[in-house]
């Protein structure tokens, strides 16, 4: 009976989030109701998923850079409480999301055969996902400082023409506190490897500084299907064999249009699109 009530509560929460996606952070405390039939508290709950299994970054032979990065993130970085919302005081709930970023960088550096390592992030905000990606890149002896990270963002509120349906009121004030100066400060330890592209997509893709001719990694977190598609059309032809592309918004409630354009774009491509329980998706370019 108790388990049935928990499941009904969760179902109600999911329906509410589907209709009003901006409620998602406020419903995150519901994780404390989640226990399996044996009464075991989950090892991880956050970012839309719950698991009783061992965490992948708890490994004596892998994950050292990630573990250090997650500690330094809170100590070193400045971020706006309003924009970061619920996760400002619960950053541990983003760890699976960030682990996937770190793992992707590791995979690219180890297995992609190229002489030029260009990484791209579209939708940077205050630099959290870029921080994990950059730590992994710098910490890998194969490339160390021999790489570039291109960072694309407007650091302004979303334009009306790009706002998802039914979310105009939410997005109109969600990113009004973003500041490229703070992002530069947050990522200052990597400054020699960074190239900032300040402006809206797609315009900024064709402006100075020049976009990279080839890429090994693309992370898109634009919260809108229109610029997501524009970024994909622009960077896909530049991806080298084995490149990885990560989509942060792919499976999240309220971003169904983003999922649709990504699915349609890749349905006839030779690589493989992996859909993750975090709501992210990863495309392995062949």
UniProtKB/TrEMBL annotation:
Q: Pfam family example for this protein? A: TylF
Task: Look up the domain of life of the source.
Answer: Archaea
Checking Gene3D superfamilies in the record gives: Vaccinia Virus protein VP39 (3.40.50.150)
Q: What is this protein called?
A: Methyltransferase
